[in-house]
Amino acid sequence: MKTDNYRVKVSKNVKLKSWTTDERGGMKKKEGKVWAKALADDLAHWQERLYAENKQSLLIVLQARDAGGKDGTVKHVIGAFNPNGVHIANFKVPSEEELAHDFLWRIHTHTPKKGMVAVFNRSHYEDVLVTRVHGMIDDQTAGKRLDHIRHFESLLSDSGTRVLKFYLHVSKAEQEERLQDRLDNPDKLWKFNEGDLTERALWDEYTSVYQDALTTSTAQAPWYVIPADHKWFRNLLISQVILDTLKDMNPQYPETDLNPEKIEIK
Predict the structure, then answer these.
(1) Against a cut of 0.90, is the pTM above it?
(2) Which residues form the Polyphosphate kinase-2-related domain (predicted)?
(3) Coil/strand/helix, residue 121
């Protein structure tokens, strides 16, 4: 699978219409699920190496519209990892304490320490998305924040943290179907939020600000636009990108002077 096809090139002009939402990579669902299972086993192995080495770390950023599949990605992709080596943070409406500081203050403490994988289920990008659509900040402030984000992610990279950013690209029709499913299914009704309909009405506005956010794609902190209408393909593609990245990081098990042949367990 050529994951580079989904990577946002360094550019000042990004158009989401350039990516489809319903791609399946030329595969059938059954085939994709078998492949995903194999990838999950590999992910577990390479995460263990990262944890054992304790020299590098990985930050995974998940952004999407409502019902775009962030929670499902955490469950089905990140679920392959040993929980002891994973930290998951969910950034919602900031508290009074958080608002009293710069917008990245609450973010930095959740970045991964050495050996760890951190997952941002929503992230620092909320402060250039929701805030901008709802007029809490102007375009000039948003531009400055995007520059700060680039520098912040560069700092993480320089400190040994690889950054992967995924925009789960779901169509408006698919979002409607998923929201309706939440209403129709008693087991999912708790997930429905009437505020999601308010945000849905601002679809074009969110498209515009997401396109600006995607311009922060760099060699050190790339964005990937993931076709997300088919959940199984979304999971497969994200798994492959993460696995390729871990292999490129190439964490090593620590060396030891221990000679197992000289040890007898009685």
Answers:
(1) yes
(2) 28-252
(3) strand
